[in-house]
Amino acid sequence: MPELPEVEVVRRGLEAHALDRVITSVEVLHDRPVRRSPGGASVFAGALVGRTFTAARRRGKYLWLPLSPGSSAPASLPMGAQVDDAVIGHLGMSGQMLVQPVGAPDEKHLRVRFTLADATGARSELRFVDQRMFGGLALSAGGAELPPEIAHIARDLLDPEFDLDDFARRVRRRTSGIKRLLLDQTLVSGVGNIYADEALWRSGLHGERPGDRLTSAQVLELAGHARDVMSQALEQGGTSFDALYVNVNGQSGYFDRSLNAYGREDEPCRRCGTAMLRAAFMNRSSYFCPSCQKPPRARRA
DNA sequence: CAAACTACCTGACTGC
DNA sequence: TGCAGTCAGGTAGTTT
């Protein structure tokens, strides 16, 4: 499951292999991944032919690819509606962006195929592959700046402009459990279930501790741990786009070697030896050490 | 506004 | 062997 480090690897791969090439054709093999694109598959494909991706940018787990100028807005949209300044992408649970030679066998879950031609005319394919289709691609009027569709997504912990003090202030105004707040993309983006559990374990905090019962220092330490876990994963992540397929499938080795909390039910805590627990949380699981991460006392009524 | 819930997806796995 | 059930989980949308 791609989390922020994996998405950053994908962004770098796109930057290296998908920019400054003319899109000569777009084939949408399944409608669902373009479900949020205005006008659907036909507008999506039609608007992109002849255009060029000019950059690969990221906010949290969202990617966007600004486009070279187009001729006009698609006729099927209302007058003045402009939707084709960038392509927004999200990998969801199982999405991959692959660069393949023209004619390489289709992946089982290939959803969208872009054929690209470089200045010499040499062609390649950019493919969006997504088994479970939580992810998707969409046209946006956003352009080079943050597209409006993802304006609600906060900066992430690897972003030099992330405002730690503001984050701590906002967390400490909330009554929800800290794990829920870590996963709230309007407070901080890019933290998924795995890294949330890791950061909480490193901080010795239970995920149900309410935000307003944390000190500023605790929030700052937690954010630091979350940032460290993700930057370490990024360092160990793929170095070449060829390795991307492996990385995006979670086989980079990072998860096997470096996780201290996620997936370790009944295994000894690497700090104190106590058996780790698993608890149901938001239709998924939380893993924690019951000794290092004490649950909060019930709030007085 | 904040909080909490559900829907969306497919495939691997488990138990009968 | 098959079939039903469970689990994985990010985000948008709805409800309270």
CATH hierarchy, class of the largest domain: Alpha Beta
- Tell the overall outline: elongated
Structural class: alpha+beta
CATH superfamily caption of the largest domain: MutM-like, N-terminal
Count of distinct strands: 10
Uncertain segments of ≥5 residues (pLDDT<50)? 238-253
Termini distance? 40 Å
Q: What is the CATH T-level topology of the largest domain?
A: N-terminal domain of MutM-like DNA repair proteins
Rounded mean pLDDT score: 87
Please write the string of helix (H) and strand (E) elements: HEHEEEEEEEHHHHHHEE
Q: Kindly give the count of domains.
A: 2
Report on this structure:
The strands form 3 sheets. Strands 1-6-7-5 form a 4-stranded antiparallel β-sheet. Helix 1 crosses helix 6, helix 3 crosses helix 6 and helix 5 packs across helix 6. By secondary structure, it is of the alpha+beta class. It has 2 domains: 147 residues, N-terminal domain of MutM-like DNA repair proteins; 125 residues, Helicase, Ruva Protein, domain 3, CATH 1.10.8.50. It is elongated and about 65 Å long. About 5% of the residues have low confidence. The relative contact order is 0.14. The chain has 8 helices and 10 strands. The protein binds a DNA duplex (16 and 16 nucleotides) through loops.
Short account of what is shown:
It is built from 8 helices and 10 strands. It has 301 residues and is an alpha+beta fold. It folds into 2 domains: 4-150, MutM-like, N-terminal (N-terminal domain of MutM-like DNA repair proteins), CATH 3.20.190; 164-288, Helicase, Ruva Protein, domain 3 (Orthogonal Bundle).
